[in-house]
Automatic annotation (TrEMBL):
Gene3D superfamilies: Vaccinia Virus protein VP39. InterPro entries: Methyltransf_16 (IPR019410), SAM-dependent_MTases_sf (IPR029063). This is Calmodulin-lysine N-methyltransferase.
Length: 275
């Protein structure tokens, strides 16, 4: 049992069945609110970790991978940019911006997803169009765009992330960036591949995300979401929701040099039409 569960105590008064049911509902709502607050607190960027020294300007990601031992999402939040070395045919340096929220820096799930889809997806056929939801810095899309030059890749996120996505995508010719808020009506455009890294959490609009993924899919669309285990509940609920919209929903082990053991891939396909 978690600390939060233990902290919520129920009264020992006598109850009839109706009271019991109402109590249970209130208890579960309170528990859910408290879990969401804890999740948010866990993911808050710690103010004390800001470090403006010249030494912390650029992180070499390959060096970071070679010494990776601690799987803390905030470990490279202090760096203004991350150098991913040569990706495709030119250097890829990704700017980070702590002022725009959690999307302003690179999460492990983002790199893991990029490597996974670049390696496991059959990219041979045609010129696939790819969209990423909640792209943040854009690192996932930009690695995929460079590894699969025949693909057209569109990065999307909330309006405050647009300048960062545009800046980071400016050196990748087959990538574009735009605003897309989950749950809003989309233009009718359908994509062959839909990506999302670390976008399922109690603080985010999972119903909106599910609707957007369904709206942007056709019958052969492949969807890859990299998930990081934090608090139980939100991801399982999302998986159940997706099972009502798609025929195939399954978890797979990531194929990546980043070995964060908490990250796994949710693969979805087989869109069902809804009336
Ligand atoms: C934890 S960050 C992950 C960023 C990036 N994918 C990564 O892994 O580095 C979650 C991202 O989801 C985006 N997001 C959250 N709610 C959203 C919504 N309703 N519509 C669009 N994007 C949203 C946030 O702005 C943020 O960029």
């Amino acid at each position: 049992m978690t600390t939060s569960m233990m902290q919520i105590e129920r009264s020992d008064h006598d109850h009839d069945a109706y009271d019991d049911m109402m109590d249970r509902g209130a208890f579960l709502r309170k528990l859910r609110r408290q879990m969401a607050e804890e999740d948010e607190a866990q993911r808050e960027v710690p103010a004390s970790s800001n470090d403006d020294t010249a030494d912390s300007d650029t992180l070499c990601y390959q060096f970071y991978l070679s010494v990776q031992a601690v799987y803390d999402g905030y470990k490279h939040v202090n760096y203004r940019q991350i150098d991913f070395g040569i990706v495709g045919d030119s250097p890829l340096v990704i700017a980070q911006d702590r002022t725009v929220g959690k999307g302003g820096f690179v999460w492990d799930a983002a790199y893991i997803l990029a490597e996974h889809v670049s390696r496991v997806t059959d990219w041979q056929a045609g010129s696939p169009n790819v969209i990423e939801l909640g792209a943040g810095t854009g690192i996932t899309s930009l690695i995929v765009a460079r590894q699969v030059p025949q693909a057209q890749v569109h990065l999307t996120d909330l309006p405050q992330l647009l300048p960062l996505m545009e800046k980071n995508s400016s050196t990748t010719k087959n990538a574009t960036a735009g605003v897309l808020e989950w749950g809003r009506n989309v233009s009718g455009q359908e994509y062959d591949v839909i990506l999302g890294a670390d976008v399922i959490a109690s603080i985010y609009d999972s119903n909106g995300l599910a609707k957007t993924i369904h709206d942007l899919s056709h019958e052969r669309t492949k969807i890859y979401l990299a998930c990081e285990d934090r608090l139980a509940g939100s991801i399982e609920e999302f998986e159940d929701h997706m099972r009502s919209l798609f025929d195939h929903v399954g978890r797979s082990k990531p194929n990546s040099a980043n070995k964060n053991p908490k990250v796994w891939i949710l693969e979805i396909s087989g869109k069902r039409s809804t009336q």
